[in-house]
Design brief:
Layout: H1 8-23, H2 31-37, E1 59-61, H3 95-110, E2 113-116, E3 119-125, H4 138-141
Antiparallel strand pairs: 1-3, 2-3
GO molecular function: D-Ala-D-Ala dipeptidase activity; metal ion binding; metallopeptidase activity
Pfam family, one: Peptidase_M15
Catalytic activity: D-alanyl-D-alanine + H2O = 2 D-alanine
């Protein structure tokens, strides 16, 4: 891959690591973790045989932070809030919340990611389906 088409595993991993240190939100979800949720009433569980966007190293969950306070900015819904207000096209919430969400989306799309329509915080790297399922932790992938 050239510098114009970054390896999504690196791009998403770097974003996830930064976010994990700041909030605990970053997800890689190796199949061994996803599999523990599979079969349980869990909206985020996925069949380990099928894998997911996250455990292919091509997805990241993230938000924006206020650099002055170090706190996450207000969005139209909370993180992992599975309601209509979490949708990327939700027209409710405040103007400021929608502006934050749209700013995040613009920045991620500029880097080759697309928003998952039901979760404003979830972004997939292009062609994620073509990458192999990873069964490794962040630590195993290295710095």
């Amino acid at each position: 891959m050239s510098h114009l088409d970054p390896d999504p595993k690196i791009t998403a991993l770097q974003s996830s690591r930064i976010l994990t240190r700041r909030t605990g939100w970053g997800k890689a979800n190796p199949p061994r973790r996803s599999g523990s949720a599979y079969g349980i009433d869990d909206a985020q569980g996925s069949d380990p045989a099928d894998g997911s966007r996250h455990n292919r190293g091509c997805a990241v969950d993230l938000t924006l932070f206020d650099l002055g306070t170090g706190l996450p900015v207000s969005m139209p819904s909370g993180y992992d809030e599975f309601s209509h207000s979490a949708h990327s096209d939700y027209t409710g919430g405040s103007e400021e919340q929608r502006r934050h969400r749209d700013r995040l989306r613009s920045a991620m799309e500029a880097e080759g990611f697309t928003v998952y329509p039901e979760e404003w915080w979830h972004y997939d790297y292009r062609d994620w389906q073509h990458y192999p399922i990873l069964n490794v932790t962040f630590e195993e992938l290295g710095p």
